[in-house]
Design brief:
Shape: globular
Helix content: 10-25%
Number of strands: 10
Number of helices: 3
Radius of gyration: 19 Å
Strand order of the largest sheet: 1-2-9-4
Structural class: mainly beta
Order of helices and strands: HHEEHEEEEEEEE
Length: about 190
């Protein structure tokens, strides 16, 4: 009886203890131009929740989409977060963020090219502890263009989606999954 009662209290304590329940609930991206270095940094902004357990810190499939003036050259020049094999906070090698084949000057937006960047999910990569309000640098882009002001993040629900004629069924919606397959990306107006 004492063992069952102890197990019951342990289970109740475990379910109510914040570190065991912690998980990121909403996130967004931020694109920042570094005037000194002449490149763009992409950040994950944690809007709600936290992640402190291995299970909740793991990177799942995600997508960051960038719209640039047609003819701009785009390349990922440095990866920053999360880290491969970082379950025990000892990872030093950043996950690889890779460019997906772009959509050049699609009919609904002929003055723009659409690029998506996605994480390579093998080997598994983990963030260090994450808390609401954190701004985490994911990767750095070199974008060669004369019109820096024309570079921006894809705007979910505003920019043309995959169903729009001329988008060839390509989905450039931003998305972020961490700790599981649930969509955590939240558009901020």
């Amino acid at each position: 009886m004492i063992k069952k009662l102890s197990l019951f209290f342990l289970l109740c304590f475990g379910l109510s203890y914040p570190a065991l329940k912690a998980q990121v609930l909403a996130a967004n991206y931020e694109l920042v131009y570094d005037e000194k270095e002449k490149h763009f940094d992409v950040y994950l902004v944690v809007l709600e929740g936290s992640a402190t357990t291995t299970r909740h810190r793991v990177q799942f499939n995600s997508q960051v989409s960038i719209i640039v003036p047609t003819g701009a050259m785009v390349e990922v020049v440095q990866n920053h977060n999360p880290f491969q094999d970082n379950q025990q906070y000892k990872g030093t090698k950043p996950l690889i963020w890779e460019l997906v084949k772009p959509l050049i000057a699609p009919m609904p937006s002929p003055k723009n090219d659409f690029y998506a960047v996605r994480p390579v999910l093998f080997p598994s990569s983990f963030y260090n502890d994450v808390n609401q309000g954190d701004k985490i640098k994911l990767f750095t882009l070199n974008i060669t263009t004369d019109n820096i002001k024309g570079v921006r993040l894809f705007n979910n629900g505003v920019d043309p989606g995959p169903e729009v004629t001329g988008m060839l069924g390509r989905d450039f919606n931003n998305g972020f999954c961490m700790g599981g397959p649930a969509q955590l990306y939240k558009k901020v107006d």
